[in-house]
Design goal:
The structure is a homodimer. Chain A is α+β, with helices and mostly antiparallel strands. Chain A has two domains: 295 residues, L-amino peptidase D-ALA esterase/amidase; 121 residues, ArgJ beta chain, C-terminal domain (Ubiquitin-like (UB roll)), CATH 3.10.20.340. Helices cover 31% and strands 23% of the residues of chain A. Chain A is built from 13 helices and 16 strands. In chain A, strands 9-16-11-15-12-13-14 form a seven-stranded mixed beta sheet, sandwiched between helices. Chain A has a five-stranded mixed beta sheet with strand order 3-10-8-7-6, with helices on both faces. Chain A has a four-stranded mixed beta sheet with strand order 1-2-4-5, sandwiched between helices. In chain A, a hairpin with a 2-residue loop joins β6 and β7. Chain A is globular.
């Protein structure tokens, strides 16, 4: 594939702020055969506008990957607030620990974000945290800010020492090439086994002032082959204090990034961060997450987060189907989430979808194993809007041929009413195919 | 494959009570290409001795399968006590509901067990329970016992109505062909997608009296393609009251059948039952599970149950490796079980094993996602007895080539010490291969 430097030159010839059909290209590794772009990839990428107070740069570190950029630097102006949601793993990566300590001790101020792809700096002992600290120090020197205001992200191999010197050696170049555009390059630089970069944008109004929300993400499998992680970074020029931002982000993640699953595996490095520069046209201060003037912002933030989350599923390792699982009638929302995840994570449901088999018996099985209340004899299952089973048995009018034909689509909707209450939830997932096994078993890393 | 009738004739020519090298053959379905016998299958089957008070028969129902027996009848003499452990699924099959109600209302008396393969009679509404009741009634007539003392098992397709008449029509033939031998035929008749029948036997002493324990099981994938279920039936001629038997069985299942996983999916029909005829040479009554005279029986029962459980893993769909995951150093036994299951169920760990890749980073990930206490910086991982990681990072002496060579074995041992307590657990599983996807996605059922 073409190095990103070429892509950047091509891109600079086109006008800004308009959606543009950029053909998806994979972000490759020199160590594995080239993977084809996911059949579920978006047809084109959105063109992300500049965000006041944010500048970006990318570079090639010379560590794991050949012929592509694998470092991403974002610098934010003074006054930027930050929020973060991180992996629940009991063995988090050094970068996650660094970011969590910064948010706790730094009162949510942020000036820079540096992400490296190819090495997760996870399970690397004390040396790992020292490496994260050294990177933050070097970024602080290069962009003239406090070390405590620098956030870091690492994604890639677990258990290998980070080649810190090679990475740090690129910071002068990175600081010198900062520019307000280059979102697709930034999204590409943080990829590992992703077959396409992930971007989303929206505009919102706060108190009559227009603000922009841009997001980039990477992820392909909850943890990719020897690679780790879902990372997502969202930037806005809105002026929102860190405490409010943190609550907004947590609420948003709950219904977006926490509602996707590829293989049920959880990375040591999963990270979603939200930065608000406050450099939009001035709006009156917002001091609480429930402020009605934040309503449009909350909606648009949810849109950006959901779009990024769904793109990660669309790049799920080996995915050929994008599956929406909606559960209703559960005892409560938490129970609905658990049942929906049980269906979405079931290897037998996922392989049936891969085989285009409307095997609703496996959906019944997955509901049953979730451990949440379900009324077998009131249960109803619809696939693609067609009722397959109701009142605890196959629908008398069900014709397998109809649903069998529907299963050939790339987008599959499954809805299940478990008949006990009013809890609802929607989870997005993909199918489980030979390609998943190929990616994760056939190639030695 | 040869019909079981042929196999029976061949077998009757060989002497009893000695281990015999019977070549594994698959129990097939006419609706799918023939599956090869699992590479992890035992080299030969044990010859199971007769058990005083138990007689067996098998027949072909003419429902789903062609050219093989798919009905198994076991008749036990008066005085037999029964115990059962069943699926935790919230949508259990009709057979499971029938057996549970019999154990609750029938004070643990048992006279007969009828199992059909090919149709799980699950998610079949009220008609399903009526079918189970009709089968029990017909068995009771055929063998002259109370309906309430008849247990039933069903395994196969979910959601299709059982062809009760075809099954019931064979009961006269079944009752007429009851014999004290025929364990391999019984084990074969309950198979669905299994590639070999599963049998185990042991002798134990209770109060100086020798008793026999025979077990048969089926299962290949926690729930096989459109087929459901792990079923295991264990018989003994010991004299043990039902309440004691129930406790012994629950304790045994906890460390055997509950410690295996193929794909983490849970059937609607999982069943383990234990029948004790009391027809051994007389021993003094045992009235509590902790009776020291039951010590040897408990051990041998655990051996039989563990052997059957491991055989199910060895016949895991697509399995090429038998994997033992041992976790120590957890906060308590429950935490150790959860961490061991998290490792054993991780698609990324299982695909790495399939790829013969000593990808210990994925083991770290799976420990982290279990949600139980683990001290990252004290954690130790051994593969095949070689220390891979310790003190939270790769072992300085670790050579990937050594462990890479070990990964080519069919039996893989993974041990993880999470460094916080004294909780231990062992889980048995298999790898996740292309063949699993083939079995579950490529063939329409």
């Amino acid at each position: 594939m073409a190095p990103l430097a070429d892509r950047k030159r091509t891109k600079s010839a086109v006008p800004k702020k308009k959606p543009k059909a950029v053909k998806p290209r994979r972000s490759g590794s020199a160590r594995k055969p080239k993977a084809p772009v996911s059949p579920l990839a978006p047809k084109s990428f959105p063109e992300l506008p500049a965000i006041a107070g944010v500048s970006l740069a990318t570079a090639q570190s010379g560590t794991r990957y050949k012929g592509r950029h694998d470092l991403m630097l974002a610098v934010m102006e003074t006054g930027t607030s930050a929020a973060g949601v991180f992996t629940t793993s009991k063995v988090p990566s050094a970068a996650v620990e660094w970011c969590q300590s910064r948010l706790q001790e730094g009162r949510g101020n942020a000036r820079a974000l540096l992400v490296n792809a190819g090495n997760a700096n996870a399970f690397t002992g004390k040396a790992g945290f020292e490496a994260a600290t050294a990177i933050a120090s070097a970024v602080a020197s290069a962009v003239s800010c406090r070390r405590g205001d620098v956030f870091v992200g690492s994604t890639g191999v677990i258990g290998e020492a980070l080649e810190t010197e090679k990475i740090v050696g690129k910071f002068t170049v990175l600081a010198g090439s900062l520019a307000p555009d280059g979102w697709i390059q930034a999204a590409s630089a943080i990829c590992t086994t992703d077959t396409f970069p992930k971007l989303a944008t929206a505009t919102a109004e706060i108190d009559g002032v227009q603000v922009t929300i841009n997001g980039i993400a990477k992820g392909s499998g909850m943890i990719a082959p020897d690679m780790a992680t879902m990372l997502a970074y969202i930037f806005t020029d809105a002026a929102i204090p860190a405490e409010v931002l943190q609550t907004l982000l947590m609420l948003t993640v709950h219904d977006s990034f926490n509602m996707i699953t590829v293989d049920g595996d959880t990375s040591t490095s999963d990270t979603v961060m939200l930065f608000a520069t406050g450099k939009c046209a001035e709006h009156r201060p917002v001091n609480r997450p429930g402020d009605p003037r934040l309503r449009d912002f909350r909606e648009k933030l949810a849109e950006v987060a959901t779009e990024l989350a769904q793109q990660i599923v669309r790049d799920g390792e080996g995915a050929t189907k994008f599956v929406t699982v909606t559960v209703s009638g559960a005892a409560n929302a938490r129970a609905a989430r658990k049942i929906a995840n049980s269906i979405a994570n079931s290897p037998l449901v996922k392989t049936a979808i891969a085989g285009e088999d409307p095997n609703w018996g496996r959906i019944v099985m997955a509901v049953g194993k979730a451990g949440e209340a379900a009324d077998r004899d009131a249960m109803r299952i619809d696939i693609g809007g067609v009722t397959v089973a109701r009142d605890g048995m196959v629908d008398p009018d069900y014709k397998e041929a109809t649903v069998g034909k529907y299963m050939k689509n790339k987008e599959i909707d499954i809805t299940v009413d478990v008949g006990v209450g009013r809890g609802e939830a929607t989870v997005w997932t993909c199918d489980l195919t030979h390609r998943y096994i190929e990616i994760n078993a056939d190639y030695r890393s």
